[in-house]
Specification:
single chain, alpha+beta, elongated
Amino acid sequence: MTFIQRFFTRILPRAWAESMRAESEQWMVQCPCGFERSVWEMGGIRWKAVGNPRRRGGCPQCGQVTWHTLQKRE
């Protein structure tokens, strides 16, 4: 868990922290090569968010820096 994740899970009420973690695990970051992982796994938080933004970043599978899409998996 990253510093930011530990910080928010400690200051928020337990129910909110669990909701934040669960929702962040539903948001998947997908590389054009097909590799995907959750926002929580990457060390981030995406809670009570909407839309499908794109983020530029490196992929551990293909090694390229490309635009990744964020999508919520139900």
